[in-house]
Amino acid sequence: MLEFYLQYLIIVLLYAKCTAGILVNAFIVATSFQKWKTLKTLQTCDKILSCLAISRCVLLFNAMLLELLLIYFYQLFQNPVLGPAMMVGTMLMNNTNLWLTTILCVFICVKITNFNHKLFIFLKTRISSLVH
């Protein structure tokens, strides 16, 4: 009986966390879209941030959907085609999210730091021309 309540609590917390994440990321996308609509252009960092927010919305929605399917339709995961396809889709979304985060971190790191190495100065001038 305690297991049931604990499992129910974990599911409720997962859905609350995913819903909050989707709302925050949707706000970021809406703000960027409004800025793009007003200015007719976006800076590279804003484009990356918008893509990252969309990617995270999709990833969080996928987590909620997979949890729902796992609870109520666990037989789908036993299907030799559909189960691995869902896992590959999840891994693809997760890796996309990680790569976009990495790109954003590198752009911001190069923009705010100041080293005097030739390679770093070259990268800084190239990336600074992209990132306003």
From TrEMBL:
Belongs to the G-protein coupled receptor T2R family. Pfam families: TAS2R. PANTHER family: TASTE RECEPTOR TYPE 2, TASTE RECEPTOR TYPE 2 MEMBER 40. One of its GO terms (cellular component) is membrane. It is a multi-pass membrane protein. One of its GO terms (molecular function) is G protein-coupled receptor activity. Its main location: membrane. The keyword Lipid metabolism does not apply. The lineage of its organism: Eukaryota, Metazoa, Chordata, Craniata, Vertebrata. It comes from Eleutherodactylus coqui. Keywords: G-protein coupled receptor, Membrane, Receptor, Sensory transduction, Taste, Transducer, Transmembrane, Transmembrane helix. The chain crosses the membrane at residues 6-30, 51-77, 97-116. It is found in: Membrane. This is Taste receptor type 2 member 40. It comes from the Eukaryota.
